Amino acid sequence: MTSADAFRERLLPSAGVHLLSVLAGGAGALAGSYWGGWAAVTVGVVAAVLVSAGLSLTAPVVSVVPTGDPADGAPADAPRLSAGDAVIPLDALGAAEEVDAEGIRRLLGPEADARAYVCHRSWVRSAVRFEVTDERDATPYWLVCTRRPAQLIAATGRREAGA
User: What is the 3-state secondary structure (H, E, C) of the chain?
Assistant: First the structure.
């Protein structure tokens, strides 16, 4: 296997998603208006900031850690894919497939496998589906949302399915 290129992406919400914060702030202001104007403004601003911060702070990180980085306790020669809180060695992954928004909908709906690992955020409209080839792992595949699917596939050193 060729050495993997480093890849790191935090699945932060887009600016449009942060409009939910404004709606939450408006709802908070409406609720706080019972106690007066200053309370309404204060509650609205606090609600908007909390929702925006919550969306940003809980955004998962997708990364490919190449060889030579034993910082998280893994052997220095074991490159791995990390998506959210889960980590898998690249040796346990098979073919990769770029998935568009419609494919994500299918893989999370009618074609879903309950054993699959999914790192998904609704504001990310593309993903990569990695086949898991480790016989000891009951997980059939990983579905990892990313805004840069081709770069993620390249960083793992995998071939795209059907290529």
Answer: CCCCCCEEEECCCCCCCCHHHHHHHHHHHHHHHHHCHHHHHHHHHHHHHHHHHHHHHCCCEEEEECCCCHHHCCCCCCCEEEECCEEEEHHHEEEEEEECHHHHHHHHCCCCCCCCEEECCCCCCCEEEEEECCCCCCCCEEEEECCCHHHHHHHHCCCECCC
- The reply to whether the predicted model has a pTM over 0.90 is no
**Residues 69 and 100 reside in one and the same domain:** yes
Express each pLDDT in 5-55 by its tens digit: 589 999 999 988 889 899 999 999 999 999 999 999 999 999 999 999 999
Is 9 part of any domain?
Answer: no
Which residues span the domain enclosing 52?
19-57
